[in-house]
Write a structure and sequence with these properties.
The complex is a heterotrimer. By secondary structure, chain A is mainly alpha-helical. Chain A has 24 helices and 5 strands. In chain A, helix 12 runs antiparallel to helix 13. By secondary structure, chain B is mainly α. Chain B has one domain. Helix content of chain B is 70%, strand content 1%. Chain B has 12 helices and 1 strand. The longest helix of chain B is centred in the middle third of the chain and has 32 residues. The N and C termini of chain B lie far apart (41 Å). By secondary structure, chain C is α+β, with helices and mostly antiparallel strands. In chain C, the strands form 5 sheets. Chain C has a 3-stranded antiparallel β-sheet, with helices on one face. In chain C, strands 6-7-8 form a 3-stranded antiparallel β-sheet. Chain C has a 3-stranded antiparallel β-sheet with strand order 11-12-13. Classes of the chains: A mainly alpha, B mainly alpha, C alpha+beta.
Chain lengths: 654, 314, 488
């Protein structure tokens, strides 16, 4: 029965893609398409919930009826990730209903059609039970997101970023596919179940190779340093709701793949795997947030912050592997729960923030923080939800980000107590640094964008945000608060899920203790706030901001984002390698300059030493492949077809 | 039941005695400068005055401006509920509350930084940017110090760490403790905005950190901010006492034991306060760009402390 | 004086004196002041130049049309020319910034205005281009008890890219106030120009009046004036060093210095009746006798105060945390200092040995052999060190003088010459202070006051640019310029 519902869900997405592409564009269609998408996502949510929460499983295999191995299955893990896709998909669809309104007819069709297919492809990855289905979904996910990026124009810069994205993703897919193919001699069929059964009989060196390939492949998709540089480029240029889906959900699909392969299929890890992941994860986290701090374009900043959060998730995953290898299943379950909860949380607040960025773009026309300011009174709904997103991602208590960070800290502390090696406790310092920098980064982002006075006319004359957008953001913000104040709702099922991945653990005590503590802390703070508000003198007079006796302040007389992050950037100058230049005009006149201009070029050291050669190489290849690379969506669809075809061929002969 | 009452009393003590601590510090500093100085009760009078004044709100300010001090105050007070003062237990306890405690203080900082930016002047931005610098660099050593002690005590709860430390012999002070104490002292100075990191009494807008952030605040909001700031100072001092010198805390809930605990607590606090006053009187404020170096020292000490835990364990 | 023809520096030739210019049309000496005077409807420009080896020179130029600006070759001329432009409407050709200096746009309510006052005010500030650059307006009203002045910083983060000053909020038209007064009665006006340097102003003014009258000042009066001037320097430097410590949050030395300064002020009040020696100087001498008992008492107070001060200040300056703040902060390059013709301790801290007491001795200083201490680097520490050295020197002078005060009258009546011109220079605590006076029939026709602050303010931005904004108060304090003295 539930299997049928899954099929119904998948076909409804497919139907919507076709319908949006073919139907006319009356008012009715414009309301129907998002509405239908939301309804079918609600259906998906129901399926996901029943698998994730109640542990129902689905197993459908159509391989016998089809020329290729198509099988679908669902367990708690896929249920959880399906929950993420559908849960985020709903506000994204709601948001898009307003966001896509300014598109041309053709783009509108493409947008909805591709969004439906994009969601479908992600769903396919998490419900696939055969590697064929998994890889088809995986490739489609990349290509469809690329297609969506092209909807908002295809200038030279965008094409370059996009090409980089595609090259990186395909390299990642190749690694992932290779790691699956290594199972071939040992598994009777390339299905998850068969591979799981075969995992025990794999020779040790092959397990290592499989692990490394999957770590590289999934890591590339997730944006781990040093394979992250495509991420801000791609996420920065996609339409905002698509950025939200990419950052909040698509990156998590990589996490799904990694958990599925490493924890579920391979099992019994070696301890150095964990260390490798933890080190890569923490480097990713610190560098990601440092890059984010230096950014002053909303979406690029958010994209770099995704890099940071992916790093944190991998730290927790690595810890889980370490604990599992050490034979500490309870702690492994704790770390895995932390990783999964942070995955959920990041999906929520990053989705919220990307949608918020979309709303800012929609209402002001710019994403440059330096031009914004004072948006909160102009966009109250967006502003408040965005604040909750910022506070959550900064890891403040009473919001969901704190709970998962606390769980990560707690896992690290357990690791510190158990490990004789001082490297683990030092990680606590590194995570603390990351989280403090994130706090600074999001104070900057929110304070400069939404508070103070407008820095440009774009920020001063703002069109009101559509109700759909407000509602979409408020929905996610509410979830952030719910999981922050009452984390037990999510933590208990997640710890059960973690238990299915790791043999014989009991639920870690932290799950219960933090679930009890947070409502208490929330109540205490709320009580105090209410008491103070009741006692405080309400009357207050509005005056001009103190201007030191000047007639008034202008928008220029406020700290900018660049200025805000300057002290921290100078502390970490080694990462940024800034080049500053002051030009005086006339150049030989220090006393009476007519014009002074300041320039600061921030190229990251990574970019200089590592990426430049790679990017130059890629661009050189791109020149050769220009004939293939038309930037035309139809051509891309042709590519999809070709890829599927080649996959088919490979699988037939494998 | 008695324990519950004591836990509430010690939390209230932290909150209500905080302004007095500030008053005593200024009195001591005045004495060192051979001045008479204001009364030690002056901070209370100041709060009373501010609570009764009219509040001016900048015209760019949104609801964030006025809610920030309230949120900061509430979070700081709740953080006080986790600290053991008179006996090694607290109103709220959680295995892992060392992290929650720090994050509760971070709520206040986050709120006040946004409140400062909401004022719409460059001073607010300047203050909150500098605060971000100090906070970002102080958090890692703070976590490391707490971790080092948590590793020794094999628990992540402030009260449990205090209880563990009481059971140790005073003369068995480990290298870890000394290093961690030094690191925590630096962090506490930075976090509470005392000299040499920030000068709480300066009138020079351009050199301020915390004061620049609150430049636009007046009346009741300013009172809440000043009070929170005083509580924060008290919290960090009490944290140092609880983690490094909890001896004297009453293990039993008896009137006599508690009175003795209160006495020793006051004594230890007095030592810290005298130390702070002497340090504040004998050094100049650091150049803004030297503050990171100062905090790097704290990080280095904290890292050493953590490394030494590994050695002690063997 | 080189014999460059007048038409090479101004479009007009005729009865004008040739300015002392070299082949590049630069001044061969140090520019002291440029100011205007109006006699019988014609505007005359005076160029006061300190010529090496030849003393001060006062060069006149009759204005009959636009005048070639000296600013492009001598940046120090900029503010002077702007002031003259504003006061006398003289057009200076080639001046890069001939904007009003003293008059703020909001006072010009009668003038047709193209925009709001705020826009007009804003237009005078240079907008530094570049992403992320923001402006920090500070003043005219400050958080502390400081005179009014507006500082416009263009910054990226804490780094100051550009600083522009907007002063003259305390412009009181003092030079105009002098006019029409009986020359011998106007000392109180001079005393009010710059409150903490009132004795230097009074002495400089008296010397100018005495110059007009060609009077002789009795030795005892000169000795008392020297005591007053050096005591004023002592007070200023002790106060400055204390304030420098206070600005870096070093409260103990600050409190000690304040206490020592107060002790000295009270000693002054006891001996001469006023704390800052207000009302002591009069043309022809001084008003207060310092007897031998008073002298000994004052000497004792000074000895104790200086001993205390040197103890605390030397210790403070050796404190590593303070050294770290002072050293390398606010460096004024010597070539900038020379171009802008800065004076006083600021110049001496850049290695420019300038001291009116040695270069153009007056009063009791004529009998003294003077050493002008200089320091290098031109940073805050250098300016603190210079003050320290001057405290030592002044204390020695004071102790010597108070040991053996000459006998004789303290005041002699002025000869009855009631028309003439004269100028007098005094080394005030902040540097060279010049009064230029023209008296007609016993009444003042024109009095020009060139305070050291007016000369040094334009150099401040060059010491601040490139530093972090948090160091600005410290750098500013190390210059310790007077707003009132500059604005007049």
């Amino acid at each position: 029965m539930i299997g049928l519902l899954l099929i119904l869900f998948l076909s409804s997405l497919l139907f919507l893609a076709v319908f949006a592409g073919l139907a006319g564009q009356g008012r009715w269609t414009r309301a129907f398409v998002p509405g239908f998408l939301i309804c079918s996502l609600l259906l998906g949510l129901g399926i996901a919930g029943s698998c994730f929460l109640n542990g129902r499983t689905i197993n459908l295999d159509y391989s016998g009826h089809l020329p290729f191995a198509l099988g679908l299955s669902m367990d708690r893990l896929s249920g959880f990730f399906l929950l993420l896709i559908c849960g985020l998909g709903i506000p994204v669809a709601l948001f898009s209903a307003s966001y896509a309104e300014h598109y041309t007819r053709a783009n509108w069709k493409w947008y909805w059609s591709l969004v439906a297919l994009f969601i479908l492809s992600m769903v396919l990855v998490v419900v696939a039970s055969t590697i064929f289905a998994f890889m088809v979904g995986w490739e489609l996910m990349t290509l469809l997101s690329a297609g969506l990026i092209l909807i908002e124009g295809d200038g030279e810069d965008r094409r370059r970023s996009l090409f980089l994205y595609l090259v990186m993703m395909h390299a990642g897919a190749a690694a992932v596919f290779a790691s699956f193919l290594l199972f071939v001699p040992y598994a009777p069929a390339l299905t998850l179940a068969a591979m799981r059964a075969a995992a025990g009989s794999l020779p040790a060196h092959l397990r290592v190779v499989i692990f490394l390939l999957s770590f590289a492949g999934f890591g590339m998709k997730a944006g781990l340093v040093p394979l992250h540089f495509w991420l801000p480029k791609a996420h920065g240029i996609a339409p905002s709701p698509v950025s939200a889906l990419m950052s909040a959900v698509m990156l998590k699909i990589a996490i799904y793949g990694f958990i599925r392969l490493t924890f579920d299929i391979l099992g019994t890890p070696q301890i150095w795997w964990g260390y490798l992941i933890v080190v890569v994860g923490i480097v990713t986290a610190v560098l990601g947030i440092l890059y984010a701090l230096a950014e002053h374009t909303l979406k690029r900043l958010l994209a770099y912050s995704s890099v940071e959060n992916i790093g944190l998730i991998f730290v927790a995953l690595g810890l889980a592997l370490i604990f599992e290898a050490r034979g500490l299943p309870i702690l492994a379950a704790l770390s895995l729960t932390a990783a999964l909860f942070h995955t959920l949380n990041h999906a929520l607040f990053k989705g919220l923030l990307f949608l918020g960025a979309g709303a800012v773009k929609h209402t002001t026309g710019t994403l440059d923080i330096e031009e914004l300011g004072g948006l909160l009174p102009r966009l109250p709904g967006i502003g408040i939800s965005f604040l909750i997103g910022c506070a959550a991602i900064a890891g403040l208590p009473l919001l969901n980000g704190f709970v998962s960070e606390w769980l990560i800290f707690k896992s690290l502390l357990h690791g510190s107590v158990l490990e004789p090696d001082p490297a683990v406790p030092l990680l606590i310092g590194a995570v603390a640094l990351t989280s403090a920098l994130a706090c600074a980064c999001f104070v900057k982002l929110y304070g400069i964008t939404f508070l103070g006075r407008p820095r440009s006319d774009a920020a001063k004359y703002v069109v009101a945000a559509p109700e759909n957008m407000n509602l979409a953001l408020v929905m996610i913000a509410a979830a952030c608060i719910l999981f922050g104040v009452h984390p037990g709702v999510a933590l208990h099922p997640l710890s059960v899920l973690a238990g299915t991945m790791i043999p014989n653990p009991t639920s870690p005590p932290e799950i219960a203790s933090i679930s009890r503590m947070m409502p208490l802390v929330a109540a205490a703070i709320a009580l105090l706030v209410i008491v103070v508000l009741l006692l405080r003198k309400p009357a207050s007079r509005s005056v001009n901001t103190w201007a030191c006796g000047l007639p008034g302040l202008t928008g220029r007389m406020q700290y900018t984002a660049t200025s805000f992050s300057k002290p921290l950037r100078s502390v970490f100058a080694a990462v940024y390698r800034p080049e500053r230049k002051m030009d005086l005009e006339p150049p030989d006149e220090p006393y009476f300059p007519v014009n002074i201009s300041y320039r600061s070029v921030r190229t990251t050291s990574f970019e200089k030493t590592l990426y430049r050669p790679i990017v130059d190489g890629v661009v050189a290849v791109a020149r050769q492949l220009r004939r293939l690379h038309t930037g035309n969506i139809q051509t891309y669809l042709l590519y999809i077809f070709l890829v599927i075809l080649s996959l088919l061929v490979v699988l037939r002969f494998a | 039941m008695m324990g519950f009452v004591i836990n509430i009393v010690q939390m209230l003590l932290l909150v209500l005695a905080a302004p007095l601590l500030r008053g005593i510090i200024s009195k001591l500093k005045a004495w060192i400068q051979k001045r008479q100085g204001a009364s030690v009760w002056r901070p209370y009078a100041n709060l009373w005055k501010l609570f009764h004044k009219e509040e001016l709100v900048p015209n760019t300010a949104t609801l964030i401006f006025r809610s920030a001090p309230v949120v900061a105050f509430a979070a700081t007070v709740v953080a006080a509920a986790f600290l053991p003062v008179l006996h090694p237990a607290a109103f709220l306890t959680l295995d892992g509350d060392i992290f929650l405690f720090v994050y509760l203080l971070a709520i206040g900082r986050f709120a006040m930084s946004l409140g400062a930016l909401d004022g719409g002047s460059s001073f607010g931005g300047m203050g909150s940017s500098r605060e971000a610098l100090v906070a970002a660099l102080a958090e890692a050593p703070l976590f490391l110090v707490l971790t080092a002690l948590a590793i020794l005590a094999r628990t992540g709860s402030l009260s449990e760490i205090a209880a563990w430390t009481i059971r140790q012999n005073f003369f068995d002070v480990s290298t870890v403790h000394l290093l961690a104490l030094a690191a925590l002292a630096i962090v506490a100075v930075a976090e509470t905005g005392r000299i040499p990191v920030d000068n709480p009494t300066t009138h020079l807008e351009l050199t301020m950190i915390h004061e620049a952030m609150v430049l636009e605040y007046s009346g009741p909001s300013l009172a809440l901010i000043e009070w929170s700031q005083a509580i924060k100072l008290n919290l960090l001092a009490t944290l140092m006492i609880g983690l490094f010198a909890p001896w004297g805390m009453s293990l039993t809930v008896t009137p006599l034991g508690l009175a003795a605990a209160l006495g020793t607590y006051a004594l230890k606090l007095a030592c810290l306060v005298i130390g702070l006053a002497v340090v504040e009187s004998s050094v100049a404020k650091l150049r803004m760009y030297a503050v990171p170096d100062f905090l790097r020292v704290a990080s280095a000490l904290a890292i050493l402390a953590v490394i030494f835990t590994a050695i002690t364990k063997r | 004086m080189k014999g460059n023809a007048a038409n090479q520096w101004g479009p007009e030739s005729g009865r004008n004196e040739a300015l002392p210019l070299d082949a590049d049309r630069r001044f061969t000496g140090r520019l002291v002041s440029i100011f205007g005077d109006n006699t019988g409807g014609t505007t005359i420009l005076h160029y006061l130049v300190d010529l090496p080896g030849a003393g001060y020179g006062d060069f006149e130029y009759v204005v009959a049309g636009p005048v070639r600006s000296m600013t492009p070759v001598a940046p120090a001329a900029s503010w002077h020319e702007r002031e003259v432009h504003e006061q006398y409407g003289v057009e200076f050709i080639g001046h890069p910034h001939l904007r009003p200096l003293m008059r703020h746009s909001r006072f010009d309510s009668g003038l047709p205005s193209n925009g709001s006052t705020q826009e007009m005010e804003e237009s005078q500030f240079l907008r530094v281009q570049g992403e992320g650059v923001c402006e920090i307006p500070v003043g005219p009203v400050h958080a502390g008890i400081i005179e009014p002045g507006h500082f416009r910083f263009s910054v990226v983060g804490d780094t100051v890219l550009h600083l522009q000053l907007r002063l003259f909020y305390t412009h009181k038209g003092t030079e105009k106030l002098f006019e029409g007064r009986v020359a011998t009665d106007a000392v109180p006006i001079a005393e009010s120009v710059s409150g903490d340097n009132c004795f230097a102003h009074a002495v400089a003014y008296c010397q100018a009046v005495e110059g007009v009258h060609q009077a002789i000042v009795p030795p005892k009066a000169n000795a008392i004036r020297l005591i007053g001037l050096e005591l004023e320097r002592l007070l200023a430097h002790i106060g400055d060093l204390g304030a420098l410590c206070g600005d870096v949050g070093f409260a103990v030395p600050a409190a000690y210095c304040a206490r020592i300064k107060e002790d000295l002020l009270q000693a002054s009040a006891k001996i001469v009746g006023t704390r800052y020696w207000r009302g002591v100087a009069v043309p022809g001498g001084v008003r207060h006798e310092i007897g031998s008992a008073d002298g000994r008492e004052l000497k004792e107070s000074i000895r104790i105060a200086v001993e205390d001060f040197v103890g605390i200040a030397e210790q403070a300056l050796r404190t590593p945390s303070l050294e770290d703040r002072f050293e390398g902060a606010g460096i004024l390059a010597p070539n900038r200092a020379a171009d802008l013709a800065v004076v006083g301790p600021v110049a001496r801290a850049c290695g420019i040995a300038l001291d009116v007491r040695r270069d153009h001795p007056y009063g009791a200083y004529k009998n003294l052999n003077f050493d002008v201490p200089t320091w290098h680097y031109g940073d805050v520490m250098a300016r603190a060190r210079i003050r320290m050295m001057e405290v030592h020197a002044s204390a020695r002078l004071l102790l010597d003088y108070l040991e053996a005060l000459p006998a004789g009258p303290i005041w002699l009546p002025l000869p009855a010459i009631s028309t003439g011109r004269a100028f007098a220079a005094v080394e005030a605590p902040r540097g060279e202070l010049v009064y230029w006076l023209r008296v007609e029939e016993g009444k003042i026709a024109r009095c020009h006051v060139r305070s050291p602050s007016f000369q040094n303010w334009p150099a401040l931005p060059f010491a601040v640019t490139g530093n972090i904004i948090a160091d600005f108060p410290l750098i500013n304090k190390s210059f310790n310029l007077s707003y009132s003295g500059c604005d007049r």
